[in-house]
Amino acid sequence: MKINPPLLLQIISRSYLKLVQPHNLPMYCFQSRRFSHTETPTTNSIITINNASSSAVPISTSSMESHNSQKATDSTPVSKIVLYSFWQSSCSWRVRFALNLKGLSYEYRAVNLGKGEQFTPEFDKLNPLHYVPVLVDGDVVISDSYAILLYLEEKYHQRPLLPVEPQLRALNLQAASIVSSNMQPLHMLSVLKYMEERVGPEEKQLWAKFHIQKGFVALEKLLAGSAGKYATGEEVYMADVFLAPQIAVATKRFNIEMSEFPTLRKIYDSCEALPEFQASLPERQPDAAL
After folding, report:
1. Residues facing 57 on adjacent strands
2. Residues 191-217: pLDDT tens digits?
3. How far, in Å, CA of 132 to CA of 154, rounded?
4. Are 142 and 135 in contact (CB under 8 A)?
5. Which letter does DSSP use for residue 84 in this model?
6. Which of 24, 28, 106, 220 is 20 to 30 Å from 247 at the Cα level?
7. Biggest alpha carbon distance in the chain?
């Protein structure tokens, strides 16, 4: 028997409309339901039908997982950063500068090195070497400024302190290492106090100036070809974070003349103009007046 196509289409349409009438559908189809984290939908999508509407809205399981994941992320408590610092410590200064550049708020806890507060049992648990700074971020405790800055760079990606280009990254790390390994440790308060007790106050100043100038000579040569406004171009990076406090200490505490180091002088002038650097100045810290 020959069937007229238009007539066949009409018959199918009428049958479908009769089938989808509300009294022919199970009641659970009209009840919206939220799946718990432990339940698994039986199909790849869930159809929710609103009582006031006959339209079906598909919700994919991948969208649900993304939503639940976002809710979990939003409810995760953000750890509070605590910085144990001494206002005159250049190591603490560079960490304050870095935290400001990254826009990270933190609690400042003063450790008075002059009064020996670094030797208290409480601080000994944080750093058995009895040095500042110490950074506490949740369960993480780090007691070395170089390690602190690398940690901040790894965890908090905003405002990177290391450039993407490998050669410039290496240059920043090298400059930072010269300051943290070959300069600052040789004129820290405990070393100078030891020198003064053994050989006198004049010798301790000569000792400090010799090692600072030696480091500046190396840094001037290292950065002469890469420096722009800052140590490795037009953006402030880790080399600048280490250099600026070191230069400030060298000029103000040890009377180093920076005219011999024009590249370093320019880098410092650029950093000095930054509000993040101004906020990290020793005299602006809570313990400066103590």
Report:
1. 48
2. 988 888 998 888 888 999 999 999 999
3. 21
4. yes
5. E
6. 106
7. 120
> Position of tokens 């240059």?
171
Concatenated DSSP letters for 97-130?
A: HHHHHTT---EEEE--TTTTGGGSHHHHHH-TT-
Is residue 80 scored above 60 in pLDDT? yes
- The one-character DSSP state at 244 is H
What's the gap between Cα 274 and its chain centre?
18
Phi, then psi, of 112 in degrees rounded to 5: -80, 105
Q: What confidence tens digit (pLDDT) does each residue in 14-38 have?
A: 544 444 444 444 333 333 333 233 3
The answer to whether 133 and 85 are in contact (CB under 8 A) is: yes
Residue 245 to residue 198: CA distance in whole angstroms: 28
The answer to whether residues 253 and 228 touch, using CB atoms and an 8 Å cutoff, is: no
Pairing of strands 45-49, 107-110: unpaired
Identify whether 133 is preceded by a cis peptide bond (ω within 30 of 0). Answer: yes
pTM as predicted? 0.72
CB atoms under 10 Å from CB of 239, counted, come to 30
CB atoms within 10 A of CB 274: 17
Give the span between the Cα atoms of 281 and 245, in whole angstroms.
9
Measure the CA angle with vertex 166, ends 164 and 168; round to 5°.
Answer: 80
Strand, coil or helix: 205: helix
CA nearest 182: which of 153, 150, 215? 215
Residues 168 and 174: their CA atoms lie apart, in Å, by 10
